[in-house]
Amino acid sequence: TLVRTTGSLGVAEDAVQDAAVRALETWPRTGVPANPGGWLLVTARNRAVDLLRREAARTAKETAAVSAYGPFTA
Predict the structure, then answer these.
(1) pLDDT-based confidence at 71, cuts 50/70/90?
(2) 20 to 30 Å CA-CA from 43: which of 2, 15, 16, 61?
(3) CA dist., res. 56 & res. 72, Å (int)
């Protein structure tokens, strides 16, 4: 489902992993939700959207920085 939504296996894998970690942190405090699979899917989807937005913003920021300051040379 996430691969279809994001178009990227890598982004989907990262999002599912982050959702599983978040479940391991949250569920002991709050209890397992009534629909754990749905909770994981929604959390992973939200994380995937965050990752894709961050990546899109990073590219735009890099382009702006290069045009403002010129290419970096070591």
Answers:
(1) low
(2) 61
(3) 21
**Helix, strand, coil tally for the chain in percent (to 5):** 80, 0, 20
Report the C-alpha gap between 61 and 25 in whole angstroms.
33
In angstroms, the CA 74 to CA 71 distance is 10
The pTM for the full model equals 0.73
> What is the tens place of the pLDDT at every residue in 17-46?
999 999 999 999 999 999 999 999 999 999
The tally of CA atoms less than 13 A away on the side-chain side of residue 36 is 10
Longest alpha-carbon distance in the chain: 55
On whether the CB atoms of residues 47 and 10 are closer than 8 A, the answer is no
Q: What number of residues does the chain have?
A: 74
26 token code pair: 């949250």
